[in-house]
Amino acid sequence: MNPFFESNLLQTRRQFFGHSGLRLGGLGLTYAMGTDAFAAPKSQVHEPLPGLPHFAAKAKAVIYLHMNGGPSQLDTWDYKPGLQQWYDKDLPPSVQGGQRLTGMTSKQARFPVAPSLFKFSQHGQCGRWVSELLPHTAKHVDDIALIKTVHTNAINHDPACTFVMTGREVPGFASLGSWLSYGLGSVSNDLPAFVVLTPNWSAKAMAQALFTRMWSSGFLPSKFSGVALRAVGDPVLYMQNPEGVSPANRRAMLDTLSQMNAHSFEKFGDPEIQTRISQYEMAFRMQTSVPELVDLKQESQATLDMYGPEVLKPGSFAASAILARRLIERGTRVVQVLHRGWDQHGNLPADIRLQCRDTDQPIGALLTDLKQRGLLDSTLVIWGGEFGRTVYSQGGLSQTNYGRDHHPRNFCMWMAGGGIKGGTTYGESDDFSYNIATDPAHLNDINATTLHQCGIDHERLSYKFQGLDARLTGVERQKPIKEIIG
Amino acid sequence: MIRSAAILIALATFATAAEPLSFNRDIRPILSENCFACHGFDSKKREAELRLDTPEGAYTVKDGAFPIKPGDLAKSEVWQRIITSDEDDLMPPPKSHKKLTQKQKDTLKLWIEQGASYQKHWAFEKPVEKAGASIDSLLAERQTKDKLTFAEEAERETLIRRVSFTLTGLPPTLAEVDTFLKGQSYEAMVDQYMKSPRFGEEMARHWLDVARYADTHGLHLDNERSTWAYRDWVVKAFNENLPFDQFTVWQIAGDQLPNATPDQFTATGFSRCNVTTSEGGAIDEEYRHLYAVDRAATLTTAWLGLTGGCAQCHDHKYDPLTTAEFYSLYAFFYSGADPAMDKNISSTEPFLRLPTPEQQKSLDAAIAAENAALKALDDSAQKAAYVEKKTAEAQTITQVLFDDVFAPGMETKNTTRNASVWVNKPAYGAKSGQRVLRIANGQFSEENLTPQLTPVVLAESSRISVWARIDPLSPPRVLCLNINGRRLMWGDAEAFEGLTYFQENAITVGELPKPGVWTQLSVDPSAVLGFKPGTRLNTISLQQVGGVVMWDRLEVSGKTTTDKHALTSLTTWWKQVSGSKKNPSDVPAAELKTLMTAPDKVTDAKQREALRRFYIARVAQPISDEIAQRRSAWEAAKTIRAAADSAIPGTFVFRDAETPRETFIAMRGAYNKLGDKVEPTTPAAFHPLKKAGARATRLDLAKWLVAPENPMTARVTVNRFWQQVFGIGLVKTSHDFGSQGEPPSHPELLDDLAVRFQKNGWNVKALIKELLMTKAFKQASPVESSLLSLDPDNRLLARGPRIRLDAEQIRDNALFVSGLINLEMGGRGVRTYQPPNIWEPVGYGDSNTRYYLQDHGSALYRRSLYSFLKRTAPPPFMSNFDAPNREQSCTRRERSNTPMQALQLMNDVQHFEAARALAERVIAQGGPDDSVKLNWLFRTVLSRKPDAKETTMLNAALTKQRELYQKDPQAAEEAIFVGESTPKKSAAPAETAAWTLIANLVLNLDETVSRN
Predict the structure, then answer these.
(1) CATH number, domain at B613?
(2) Is residue B416 part of a domain?
(3) Is the per-residue pLDDT at B363 higher than 80?
(4) Segment among A99-108, A180-189, B907-916 with least mean pLDDT
């Protein structure tokens, strides 16, 4: 289920297979004698696949900020000043081009253009235009590569969410984080290699669902699934001892358990028993390491302030952002933060304000924080949704209000850190942000880029599934976006 | 790492140098892995028009050269390309990232030298019986090649526990162990478990993974789906030993059997178990396509052992399944009668109600009684003299919106999107009549009432009242009456904070009523909300946040003169309704037409008279004792009918649309890029399909699957049962018997079992018993390191199978040995203990499976097979131990070994409560002293006595835990109250707590979570 800590597994197995001619019964002793044998392992807990990384990795860790529901590119990053004069005029059919629409607007009588209500201004050395909704992120534009022409295959949430994280529209395939932990292993002895956070959100509209398949291992072994770090209840499932069971009770129980399992190993000789012994010790260590991880009191006031007023509120996006940093500091390889509430079919201006208020300051702080600690160079930060939104208004359009339907043909994502060339822009959409004008970037190109930054040739990371070499980036020819790589 | 190395070792042992090469065993895997992607079956991807998967392709001269010239390496272009140093000519090409090992090259070289002979892929050859052989003899024959022999027989305690888990998913009881130790024969012991109803449950579990059965739709809202009758049928089919050919036919085409029985219909639920959506913008054609793909692919995997899903986009690269053939299989399902959008309801059609004969009889009788009661009422109304009157004085008139049934013409909807839930004759009694309305949800939920036929208009001194009874085990945070959109609350107003359902102007009226008693919530709407007399109540909604609440008798009363009230004045009623925009339900068409026309516009006396009678009978306050009596008789009859109706469960069934849909190849798998038209038929590589009519049916397909000529079904099936019993299949890739799958470890054994399974009438119990009776199964499982490195996966079975228990078995084991288990069978999925925030962070805003509402009492201890499985957030106790999420068919689970599992087994309330209950059993039944007690505990869990060393360790552990708890009595008190079952207090808290930790220890032993 979890992608971590195989250290003792490997160690014990190595010992096991290393001592040729080892007699049954000889090995158990060290394990039976006490717990010293389980001091934190020195080697990498779960090793990378042979031959990986394929080349030197720029990024050691990935923080993926997924804005679930499909944030509007028109109101955040894709500046279209020319649209003001198109207010409430019909989107020209030549632009619409007869492309498929969702069932929600395909029967709409008109497709009135809704220019963004939000002001854009230029930022940074690169002079990038950014919406007033994102003042904190805007300070980092020189570290950010913006991809304005991302496109996806799916037009509705369920398949699009599945696609953005697994490269397929249907369930059953492995998620990005699972691929990374499968390929690159884990460097943390006490924490999962792939952690998922699902913070609260503020938009009022009905929020779209998430699916555990967005972080599940699919056809990969289940230990590569993302582990949810939870804001309610135990941060990691079943981590706390039951009421009335003290660490002393637990330690005593575990000591005997180790001895008895070692005794069992003497009898059965099954190496799985040794793995189990080490997993219990790892579990015991997690009972300390996880509370330490989530204890934000160790952070300086200045750092906390930077993330904004909600940082100490469990389950807030701000708390998730700072936890993401703490996780990668402690060796977690992939942190996925999935923020819901971006599906703004109506009341977009009000809801997107709330969503940006949740996320903008913490994201700005995260980038600053990573940079200050020298972690940004080795941490790839990705921001994006499962698709974008239409330039035309769904439902009524007024001077102060509009909604936007799903738009998979072009939307914006950004990447920062981890060897990404800051201040660059890749691709341009047309004047209506409805079609790609130049340099399309398929979501699988984005995923190929992510793998590339982690030292992986996406064509060579595969897993035999249904008789085929399944890859994150699918069967079509995809490529990393060289133009944004530093 | 070790695992992949292990496969190499195992496979390497299959070919010994002395033997001549076999194409299927030695060559095909190399070609398949390295060459077939470009030089195989898929004509569209074929490079240089060269195919190497057939002898014709390999031997025929191309561009003046032989690709392969048997016996002649120098003239074989393929070989020359393999050994060339020229990167441009090298095969496989460097850009494919494929590379032959030296060993593979040597093998290919030898093969060409020996004559490069081809074989049809083994799985497409008809299996043959091996006369005179047995499972053990065939295994032994293979073992001798590696100088191996069977291990000695396992100890009897190990044997009975191994058999019991294999057949029932549960450990043996102490009594069963004792009987077996006292000399019961092994065969008798096996027979006894095969007869247990637990057998069907354990077998079903494995099949339900294949069938991708779950309790929710799986996509987008992932709402509840009511198709558990299918799950229960699978259990029943195994218990009744339904022959596997029928098991197949019923599931694929039960609906097409002559005079299909309810069971045969229920079985077709197999093809309805795929995930479905009802997402707002989703496009019908796309999903109709995806469902048929899933159904065809599942069938191909489950029966044919082929990964058919690949051919969805392109000709299969490795196996002879063209895209056209895949879509011909797909065509059997593309004409399904189910809609593309599941509507987010639990009863998406085709949905079949499944009454038992008694239930059907009751329902028929109830319908007849209801009709008779209505006729009697209408007859009385015919005779009744009604004159519209105006009383001088205002009198109190009470309008009932629901009691045992909703008032006629009431429109209702609720948060679940499903039918309202009524409880008939609850144990604590209804407040009024016999039925109560049940609302249950982990968070906000409501039952919304819109009176259409009889408008509700406030009179003077009005009151709105409803009875509520809070379930003491699941209290809500707040109860509300929402009237015309204004919310009145009893309880914690903050419950709404942060919810989409928050309302600014909500008013707190009172405290949350006391749980467990009926309380009337009653308000004066003019005092509280300022609603003036004459205000029409368009909607009244019963709302709550969290919990389980029973609601009864909602009424609105007020004082008015009779001429002004809809219940006492025909004209008033008629005017009010005819002004509505919407037609009320429950009105016959003729009367409806009259009713919806303003009273002064209807001149036809007959029409007026008919409406008058309708009014007197069904709407008006009874105008005579006779009508009053007949009205309540009618309502009672309606209640009985509704209760009889809702007692009948329903399930998803597969049916064909009336006219078959034209079916086309979806080019590259894209639903909107259609290629050639296809008709339903089976792949050409196999025996021909026998069609009963012009167009092939699913029944033809099902019969084809189980025809004697079919080389796959029996092999695939016996292999899956083998996997269940021995932990790993003869073909390890139990979903893939194609050339990319692993070849069988014992081809002759697989074939022999397959042929005899067919000959033996597809008798599942006989097959399983035969497997369990083998020497191979009965061996002791300890392994020496030399054997372990030779055969780490135990493919050669020179030792007994030792495997970690599955998720369900681990939980069921803890419940069983603790005595907590509830062995009730079947029914809607139960919601056992689940940590908070499993559903909530992921579920769609108003999904009816967003907020987990845990069950209480004995439901918590049902077998895991019956636990509610939400696909987008499955129960962690399942997924933590590798249970699939049932989003697609799964034929083989992994067995991972992780710290998360350790945490769960130590700390999950289900396991810790079980430890407490087990500790109490030890204290009460275990014997006079610690040693005897420890013995009893150990035997209860592991069926064997602890050895001296184990006894010493356990004794020391017990002493230590006692010491700790005696020092901390408060902690002991807490530890014994984990979980909802109450401790029996058979000993002092410290003593029970100490034993609880010992039970927790024993339940965490590797041996406990393994089948040894």
Answers:
(1) 2.60.120.260
(2) yes
(3) yes
(4) A99-108
* Overall domain count for chain A: 1
Residues 6+ apart with CB under 8 A from A243: B974, B975, B977, B978
CB-closest option in A2, A22, A241 to B899: A2
Structure tokens, B866: 């019956």
Residues B955 and B999: beta-carbon distance below 8 Å: no
Instruction: Judge whether A17 is closer than 8 Å to chain B, CB to CB.
Output: yes
User: Could you tell me if A184 lies within 8 Å of chain B, comparing CB atoms?
Assistant: no
Distance in Å, alpha carbon of B511 to nearest chain A alpha carbon: 27
Question: What CATH number did the domain enclosing A325 receive?
Answer: 3.40.720
Same domain, B426 and B452: yes
- Position with higher pLDDT, B689 vs B91: B689
HEC secondary structure over B684-700? CCCCCCCCCCCCCCHHH
Between B391 and A452, residue with greater pLDDT: A452
Query: Do B171 and B817 touch, CB atoms closer than 8 A?
Result: yes
ipTM entry: 0.86
Contact A267 B782 (CB under 8 A): yes
Confidence at residue A45, expressed as pLDDT on a 0 to 100 scale: 60
Task: Return the structure tokens found at B1003.
Answer: 């339940």
Q: What pTM was estimated for this model as a whole?
A: 0.86
Taking 60 as the threshold, does the pLDDT of residue B746 lie above it?
yes
Q: How far apart are CA B480 and CA B499, in angstroms?
A: 15
DSSP string, B707-759: STT-SSHHHHHHHHHHHHHHSS-SSSSTT--STTSPPPSSHHHHHHHHHHHHH
More confident of the two residues B230 and B324? B230
Please determine, for residue A398, whether its predicted confidence score (pLDDT) is greater than 90: yes
Q: Are residues B409 and B376 in the same domain?
A: no
pLDDT at A41 over 70: no
Q: How many residues in total does chain B contain?
A: 1012
Please indicate, yes or no, if residue B361 is contained in any of the structural domains. Answer: yes
Alpha carbons B251 and B302: distance in angstroms, whole number: 12
Q: Is the pLDDT of residue A358 over 90?
A: yes
| Residues B462 and B536 occupy one common structural domain | yes
The residue segments making up the domain with residue A464 are 61-243+311-484
Residue A25 pLDDT greater than 60, yes or no: no
Please answer yes or no on whether A242 and B978 come within 8 Å at the CB atom: yes
B106 and B167 share a domain? no
**Domains contained in chain B, number:** 5
User: Quick check: A156 and B281 CB within 8 A?
Assistant: yes
Amino acid, res. B778: K
Once rounded to an integer, what is the mean pLDDT over residues B75-80? 89
**Of A212, A385, A229, A218, nearest in space to A293 by CA:** A229
- Report yes or no on A33 lying in a domain: no
Report DSSP letters for B67-123, one per residue: S--TT-TTTBHHHHHHH---TTT-SS-GGGT----HHHHHHHHHHHHTT------GG
pLDDT for A34 equals: 31
- Burial zone of A107 (CB within 10 Å; 0-12 exposed, 13-18 middle, 19+ buried): exposed
pLDDT for residue B125: 85
Asked if B691 and B703 touch (Cβ cutoff 8 Å), the reply is no
**Residue of A156, A459, A479 to mutate, interface with B, max B Cβ within 10 Å:** A156
Q: How many CB pairs under 8 A join A and B?
A: 285
Residues B402, B525 share a domain: yes
Range of the structural domain that residue B935 is part of: 907-1011
Cβ atoms of A376 and A370 closer than 8 Å = yes
The per-residue pLDDT of chain B, averaged, comes to 92
Residue of chain B whose Cα is closest to the Cα of A107: B281
Asked if residue B509 lies in contact with residue B524, where contact means CB atoms within 8 angstroms, the answer is: no
Q: Are residues B363 and B478 in the same domain?
A: no
Three-state DSSP class for B382? helix
Same structural domain, B454 and B533: yes
Residues 6 or more apart whose Cβ sits within 8 Å of residue B493: B478, B506, B508
Q: Are the C-beta atoms of residues B986 and B920 closer than 8 Å to each other?
A: yes
pLDDT at A421: 97
